[in-house]
Sequence to fold (108 residues):
Amino acid sequence: MKIKLIIERQIEIEESLEELKNLSVTNLINKGYDPEELLFLCRAIRMPLNEITEYIEIYDNSRPRVDELKFVKILCEKYQADQATITMRIREVRRINKFRNNEEAPKR
Fold:
């Protein structure tokens, strides 16, 4: 399944961030990273998984629910990124966390 491979690759990149963030783009390309993976890496470095996860949990648990556009705007200001980039990162983090939770859940 293609999305599973993408998520597994994203997790692999997330787990290698400390090593990868110090490499040049040329080195990353030479290591076989494609443009999509490089863009993912840039978002992951700029907006760390654990921070975005915390913001998502605050948003998901807010009662009454915080306005989604206001939530995205707050993250846009914090990370100096546009709405499309923030939205993409939120989706990536949600998918990674969901995948990890499903992998950790006991199989029936």
